Amino acid sequence: MTIAPIENTSGIQLGILGTHLGFLDALVPDENGKLPRNADGEFVVAAGAREIIELSPVKVDLIQISSFGTTQPDEKDALIAAVRELGLEPQLVMMVGGVNPMEPDDEDEALAQLMVNLNAALRNNIVQVNSTSVETWMEGTPPANEEEFQARVAQNIKLHLRAYHEAGLADSCIRNWNIEFLRPGEFQNFTSLAKLRPILTGLNEQIGSPYFKALIDAAHCGDSGLNIPENEAIIASMGEADEIGPFHCSVPTTRGCLSSDDGWVGALLTANAKTGKLPSAFVELFRHDDPALEPLRKLEPGHGVDTTLGRTYTEVMVDGLIDTVRRLNNLKNRGLV
Fold first, then answer.
1. Rounded-to-integer distance, Cα 199 and Cα 59, Å
2. Is the pTM of the predicted complex or chain greater than 0.90?
3. C-alpha span between 116 and 70 (Å, rounded)
4. Strand 280-283 relative to strand 13-17: parallel, antiparallel, unpaired?
5. CA distance 20 to 63
6. For 9-27, what is each residue's pLDDT tens digit?
7. In the beta sheet, which residues pair with residue 334?
8. Judging by beta carbons within 10 Å of its beta carbon (0-12, 13-18, 19+), is residue 50 exposed, middle or buried?
9. Distance separating the N- and C-terminal Cα atoms of the chain
10. Cα→Cα distances 163→72, 119, 159, Å
11. Element (H or E) spanning 160, and its range?
12. What is the largest CA-CA distance in the chain?
């Protein structure tokens, strides 16, 4: 059955990521800093985005691109140009690896990695950047006590404030920097919205404006240990402080089809939209058999459940876009946005 075009009437932009294509197959550069391309020489991310655009009855506005410091600058620039040719506005998701952002001795190297990506965003007139830059993925230890946690918050504020000033972000094309927390196991410290927020608040107090915001992911909220009402309350408070950034429609544990979310995506999408500050909603899926995510499957076996039910991952992404735009349109229709 062909689905007629669905207009997004909510005023909230819709976006995609390339994670459903596989990290090694699509996102991670090789040892020479080159990004993955298909047999036709096209970037895998761009080709995957085109497939979604051609299949989807919903207009896609944005794409978030995982951005590693080891990617050659000309590769970053070419990929950004390629997705713009598709009519998508790119955002970078800045990745930091091999260094500990919470360790003062690693501050300069962490800053260098952030600067590579910030300079790419500045060079390409990108208006929103995102990052998971407050902690190293699948490494580190939980804080021994509140004093140690606060020291890690303070070091993150120091690092990100340096990046803000040294990149000259105050008078730049980059309007906001959105920071994402990850679930326990992926991170050890900043594993909930409540634990991430002190970094954002501290940064914004230093800057004097709500420049740093939260990239809120339903999957990480659902796996964080806080229940839906607790997350809703924090989101409402962050909305009052203008700390709401993009939202990831992503499913707790499985990271698959939105139909497996047990209510988290719908509840938290609504909570974010009701603040009146939500700029965009992104559909994010992971492949259940992605080799790069084997550590997550060992951490949580439910992460490896195949939720495609006979569909391709492109088709599951399109189903997610349809589900999301209908939710947003109904929120608009009910006067909640």
1. 34
2. yes
3. 9
4. parallel
5. 13
6. 999 999 999 999 999 999 9
7. none
8. middle
9. 31
10. 20, 10, 6
11. helix 146-166
12. 58
